[in-house]
Design a protein that fits this description.
By secondary structure, this protein is an alpha/beta fold. It has one domain (about 20-200): Rossmann fold. It has eight helices and five strands, in the order αβααβαβααβαβα. It has helices spanning about 1-15, 30, 40-55, 70-85, 95-100, 105-120, 140-155, 185-200; strands at about 20-25, 55-60, 90, 125-130, 160. A five-stranded parallel beta sheet has the order 2-1-3-4-5, sandwiched between helices. α7 links the parallel β4 and β5. α6 packs parallel to α7 (about 140-155). The longest helix is centred in the C-terminal third of the chain and has 18 residues, at about 140-155. The chain is globular, with a radius of gyration of 19 Å. The protein starts with a helix and ends with a helix. Residues about 10-15 have low confidence and may be disordered.
């Protein structure tokens, strides 16, 4: 009887999905689902995609807040790391810093601190790059976009060069404000992230 129960327990373990990784998304309105249903947002689509395609049980934590800056994300991060103990932190921040004209050096310093805190907690970082509209001036917009690439190279991070690639210039996929993607764009946002995330989920 004990032998039969042992065999059944082993079969149950083999049939059950293995525990995967915990992924913390530290973002702003683009990841918080501003103007759309949270269920339609790319972060939720990511969880659904992994549930359908992965043999491991990955856990996606969306800690994104509309209006968040790199400074705000940095301030919230220690508590989030302690609570969720993530294996991976996806950093989708900086857009609001740029739209508010914050100093790029301060933004860079904040992101570097986020990377270091995550690393100290045993988590890898996936950095999502951002760009801002050209009306902020050529010099500022170029320096802003290149700041992400510099951080990714210096820290050897997996990196999405432009999170809104194939979305930002497609009017039908943007909300009326011209800043936030609508529900039609969310699958493309996921497609922009997934190839860079998948290798570190293994």
């Amino acid at each position: 009887m004990i032998k039969i129960l042992s065999q059944a327990f082993i079969l149950l373990l083999l049939a059950s999905p293995s525990w995967g990784k915990t992924v913390l998304v530290l973002g702003d309105s683009l990841s918080a689902g501003y103007g759309i249903s949270v269920e339609d947002g790319w972060v939720n689509l990511l969880q659904e995609n992994l549930n359908d395609t992965s043999s491991s049980q990955h856990n996606i934590i969306n800690a994104s807040v509309t209006g968040e800056t790199t400074g705000g994300g940095l301030a919230r991060l220690p508590a989030l790391l302690a609570k969720h103990q993530p294996d991976i932190v996806i950093v989708e921040l900086g857009g609001n810093d740029g739209l508010r004209g914050h100093a790029i050096k301060v933004m860079q310093k904040n992101i570097l601190s986020i990377v270091q805190l995550s690393r100290d907690a045993g988590a890898q970082t996936l950095l999502l790059g951002m760009q801002i509209p050209p009306n902020y001036g050529r010099r500022y917009t170029q320096q802003f976009a290149s700041a992400y690439n510099k951080i990714a190279q210096a820290q050897s991070l997996p990196f999405v060069p432009f999170f809104l690639d194939k979305v930002a210039l497609k009017k039908a996929w943007m909300q009326a404000d011209g800043i936030h993607p609508n529900e039609k764009a969310q699958a493309q946002l996921l497609a922009n992230v997934l190839p860079h995330l998948s290798p570190i989920l293994q």
